[in-house]
Write a structure and sequence with these properties.
heterodimer, A: mainly beta, 6-stranded mixed β-sheet, about 55% strand, B: mainly beta, 7-stranded mixed β-sheet, globular
Chain lengths: ~110, ~110
């Protein structure tokens, strides 16, 4: 079946350091992998996505890496700020299905 | 441009009752999806509507239903509420069906007692 899972439920980093959040997936047929950020009391917020035929994609302070060989996805956040504190979800989607399958989430805590 | 709005934000119901939740997508977005979020199961897909038609459905019982109106606004209904239905219900909209970039509303927190 299709599933995504995150490696760590919590991650604590120092402000200004880089954060790396990891995710494993099992469905090789996924077309897109997506990262969402959910702050307390809010709905998930789209951060960045990557097509399955890509290895790397960069956004503003974020980079997503996709390793299809080991079915691994990671989100790197540069120079982590207090506003980055949230739960981060990886998700996968098959084009046309409009069905996001979410992992369990990693809670990122920023230490001052 | 206004984001996705959901009403009500909080709701308390009793077992056996039914509930209707509402979602207004971003202007111009025609696809609306609904998700249930619980601490134990995480975020789970309920169903997706596009142009008033249900395109996809998750693995939930028939007590969960939805619809979409001609203005793309959507409602979901849960009948015969159970304690396990307590959750945050999230609505997401996107421009097109099958789109990978979805925009979520703040959710409706449903508590069943």
């Amino acid at each position: 079946g299709e599933s995504v899972g995150l490696h760590l439920p919590t991650l604590s980093v120092q402000e200004g350091d880089n954060s790396i959040i990891n995710c494993a997936y099992s469905n090789s047929a996924s077309d897109y992998f997506i990262w969402y950020k959910q702050e307390s009391g809010k709905g998930p917020q789209f951060i960045i996505d990557i097509r399955s035929n890509m290895d790397k994609r960069q956004g503003q302070r974020v980079t997503v890496l996709l390793n299809k060989t080991v079915k691994h996805l990671s989100l790197q956040i540069a120079a982590t700020q207090p506003g980055d504190s949230a739960v981060y979800f990886c998700a996968e989607i098959k084009g046309g299905a409009q069905k996001l399958v979410f992992g369990q989430g990693t809670r990122l805590t920023i230490n001052p | 441009k206004a984001g996705v709005t959901q009403t009500p934000r909080y709701l308390i119901k009793t077992r056996g009752q039914q509930v209707t939740l509402s979602c207004s997508p971003i202007s111009g977005h025609r696809s609306v999806s609904w998700y249930q979020q619980t601490p134990g199961q995480g975020l789970q897909f309920l169903f997706e509507y596009f142009s008033e038609t249900q395109r996809n459905k998750g693995n939930f019982p028939g007590r969960f239903s939805g619809r979409q109106f001609s203005n793309s606004r959507s409602e979901m209904n849960v009948s015969t509420l159970e304690l396990g239905d307590s959750a945050l219900y999230l609505c997401a909209s996107s421009l097109q069906a099958g789109g990978n970039e979805q925009y979520f509303g703040p959710g409706t927190r449903l508590t069943v007692t």
